Amino acid sequence: MNFLTFSTLVLLVTMNSAYAYLDPGSGSVILQGIIAALGAIAITLKLYWHRLLCFLGLRKRVEYSHDEHADENDHSESRGG
């Protein structure tokens, strides 16, 4: 057992009451953190929902065909050249 693990265990075992105080603002900050984490998870799932379903085998991959030459021709015609 290394020294850091041993020291942590000794401190946890020998700890007495911690006379700590949480002010009302602390609860607000904790609640905001929980809401922010849930929002981040929701946005991430929304962004990667299709990939997740494909990974789980619930949907087939959709491959988009993109004709680069058609795009080049469209741009050259719109520029007048």
Top keywords for this entry?
81 residues; mainly alpha; 3 helices; 68% helix; elongated
Describe the structure.
The chain is mainly alpha-helical and 81 residues long. 68% of the residues lie in helices and 0% in strands. It starts with a helix and ends with a helix.
Largest sheet: none
Radius of gyration: 28 Å
Summed over residues and divided by their number, the pLDDT gives a mean of 81
Order of helices and strands: HHH
Helix-residue proportion: 55-70%
How much of the polypeptide forms β-strand, as a percent range? under 5%
Give unreliable regions as ranges.
Answer: none
Shape annotation? elongated
- Number of strand segments: 0
Number of helices: 3
Oligomer: single chain
Structure class: mainly alpha
Briefly summarize what is shown.
The chain is mainly α and 81 residues long. The chain is built from three helices and no strands. The longest helix has 33 residues, at 24-56.
Produce the secondary structure layout.
Layout: H1 3-13, H2 24-56, H3 68-78
